[in-house]
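Incident review: delayed structure delivery

Summary: a single-chain prediction request sat in the queue longer than the usual turnaround. Root cause was a stuck worker, restarted by the on-call engineer. No data loss occurred. The affected request and its eventual output are reproduced below so the record is complete for anyone auditing the incident later.

Affected input:
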Amino acid sequence: MDLILWRHAEAILGEPDEERALTAKGRKQAARMAGWLDLNLPNSCKILVSPTTRTIQTAQALDRQFKIHPALAPNTQPEDILQAANWPLSKEPVLIIGHQPTMGLLVSWLLTGVMQEWTIRKSNVWWIAQRERGDVSTNYLRAAMAPDLIGK
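Output delivered after worker restart:
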């Protein structure tokens, strides 16, 4: 299974947190990353999005159908993301658009087996895949991408 984690793009500061919209820079970040994802994601990819304005706006840049999932809200637990994605049993790739610090905790856990406070920068994507060889399953980093590394 492939699990693609996309942190929302840059958003304005303020309250209420759930209504924070993307900045002009954030809209550019989301558009760049969406272009890269659109070229690399299979058409069968399921897209799940946190119910905040900034994650929904980030998802809209991809211009694919997505589902808002309440278990992906800020301050959720890494286990909640895995359950929403049906990791590792899903037959199709799953793209999650969510928040720090949960995404960093999840990436570290999946790649090292230890939950650590890793930083996932705004609008960055971490693509984690699982490989099965016999009775052994291993997770590996298939790709990590930042919007500033994508051509303008």
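Verification: DSSP finds four helices and six strands in the chain.
Action items: add queue-age alerting; document worker restart procedure.
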